[in-house]
Specification:
Number of helices: 20
Shape: globular
Order of helices and strands: HHHHHHHHHHHHHEHHEHHEHEHEHEE
Number of domains: 2
Low-confidence stretches: none
Strand order of the largest sheet: 4-3-5-7-6
Distance between the termini: 89 Å
Structural class: alpha/beta
Helix content: 55-70%
Largest sheet: 5 strands, mixed
Oligomer: single chain
Number of strands: 7
Length: 505
């Protein structure tokens, strides 16, 4: 008589319940972690909100949809809304994978595919840090699901859903052109895909997407991504270096699957010293078209985006890692066969729980211990609220106006702007193209605060900041108490104020 854990019985009898339990547990955990332990948002999120505050249509930052949504969520519910938006993307991704898996391999095996994804997200998807990669992960999953319904199953109304998801993806990620190109290539080369081209809905959606593709190309040109890539294609001498860089990116993607490899190894029965018979989860035979679809889109996007990253001179896949991994778990389940035997079931359950919980527990442990052990500063532990309040109140007290613009060191300025009550705009003086909504003349007219990290009490700003703002009157750097000081030096922020033109003395 077999004795099996509760989750195993749930996989066979209530796979939807297992899916929602696992998905909501992960989402709730990673919503709680930043809300409870972050004193400041992650650096990429700080900059994203600084960009999104102006709801830009163009700039040197690429497709803007993630910045827009982050700003909307922030205005609606503060940072909690942005962190929740990230978890909504996670839930949407898992649901699309589950729905696609249910159509191809059945509900039980689809739930197993989602359970495997925790072994990927823990190493590759910082789900508390909303950004273009996180949003693209959800949109790409939706594109894959809707394409299956439309092109493979022949449900014609899904072409419009596919078009909407693809358009949003193009507005979100610089990798969208590569991902959509992979889908077009699959359509042209596959028999069912070519047959789907006979319906009018395909061409309506294609005509509409052409406009969004043009916008995506424009944003990539503004970000300076296209011309350097074309130039590198002509450099034969760089072929060896490009190959090495590409292999390094593929190796990094393989490492991102470490948790998945661990669970697959345990489920396969290794080590086999005392291996007992185990029950299996069976499914109906998989349609060969479904198996090909999953395997192709588990591999092609990773190959194509890493090649594009090498051509663009980037050290990470374009568009981030998250969208490339959405079908990895389902691909493993498809390859495992119609009858999957899970050995070491209790140990497997403990491993899954550890992969979920340990990274979340690692965050507060690192925040507490790292300042004492190594004297290393974590940017998520900086006192953002105190910094924003001090500089906003200082400016208003001296000028009688709310703080409208912050500049200087990019990270520090964006953090102060985010936490200041008046929500000023950020002027990136080191890269003015990233902040086209404000100029140096606007700062001189409206006034503003210029900030930078300071090592001591010397008021003189760094040479680059002095060159941009020669009229700046620097103040004595302000010291802010850290939540946990440890062996860290005092946190000092140098600053100076530019008075509004009408209030200048």
């Amino acid at each position: 008589m077999f004795q099996v854990p509760l989750y195993f019985e749930g996989l066979r009898s209530r796979p939807l319940l297992v899916f929602w339990t696992a998905t909501l547990a992960q989402a709730a955990l990673w919503l709680a972690v930043p809300l409870l332990f972050y004193a400041a948002p992650p650096p990429d999120l700080v900059r994203l909100l600084a960009v999104g505050h102006a709801f830009p249509l163009n700039g040197d930052f690429g497709p803007p949809l993630a910045a827009w949504l982050a700003e909307i969520a922030f205005r609606a519910a503060g940072l909690a809304g942005v962190y929740a938006l990230s978890q909504i993307c996670l839930i949407a991704t898992y649901w699309c994978v589950f729905a696609l898996g249910r159509a191809i391999v059945g509900a039980s095996h689809a739930a197993m595919a989602v359970l495997l994804m925790v072994g990927i997200s823990v190493f590759a998807v910082p789900t508390s840090d909303f950004g273009p990669s996180t949003l693209a992960m959800a949109l790409w999953s939706a594109v894959l699901l809707f394409y299956w319904h439309a092109a493979i199953e022949g449900r014609r109304l899904y072409w419009y859903a596919l078009g909407a998801a693809a358009a949003l993806l193009l507005l979100c990620s610089e990798a969208a052109l590569v991902l959509i190109a992979a889908l077009v290539l699959f359509t042209v080369l596959g028999g069912r895909g070519r047959r789907s081209l006979a319906v009018i809905e395909v061409w309506i959606v294609a005509a509409a997407l052409a406009l969004v593709v043009a916008a995506n190309v424009f944003w990539l040109q503004r970000a300076g991504s296209l011309m350097p890539a074309l130039a590198r294609l002509r450099e034969a001498a760089s072929a060896k270096a490009n190959t090495s860089a590409w292999l390094a990116l593929l190796a990094a993607l393989a490492v991102a699957h470490a948790g998945l490899f661990l669970m697959v190894t345990l489920a396969s029965g290794w080590p086999r010293s005392r291996l007992y018979p185990a029950p299996a989860v069976a499914r109906r035979p998989v349609d060969p078209a479904g198996a090909i679809y999953v395997k192709v889109f588990a591999l092609w996007p990773a190959l194509l985006t890493t090649i594009a990253a090498v051509l663009l001179g980037k050290k990470v896949p374009i568009g981030g890692t998250a969208p490339l991994l959405v079908l990895s778990g389902l691909a493993v389940i498809v390859a495992a066969g119609d009858r999957i035997v899970l050995h070491h079931q209790r140990l497997l359950g403990l491993a899954w729980g550890g992969l979920l919980l340990v990274p979340a527990l690692f965050v507060p442990a690192t925040i507490v211990l790292l300042p004492w052990a190594t004297g290393t500063e974590l940017q998520i532990a900086q006192p953002a609220a105190a910094m924003g309040r001090f500089f906003a109140e200082s400016f208003q007290r001296r000028t009688g106006r709310p703080l409208a613009v912050v500049s200087g060191d990019s990270r520090t300025a964006a953090l102060v702007a985010l936490a200041a009550p008046s929500r000023p705009f950020v002027y990136f003086d080191d890269d003015p193209g990233s902040s086209p909504w404000v100029s140096a003349d606007d700062i001189r007219r409206k006034g503003g605060v210029v900030v930078w990290p300071a090592a001591d009490t010397t008021p003189e700003p760094p040479p680059a900041i002095r060159a941009h703002f020669p009229e700046l009157v620097a103040e004595v750097p302000q010291r802010f108490p850290r939540p946990i000081s440890g062996r860290l030096p005092p946190l000092r922020i140098g600053w100076g104020m530019i008075r509004p033109a009408s209030a200048a003395q």
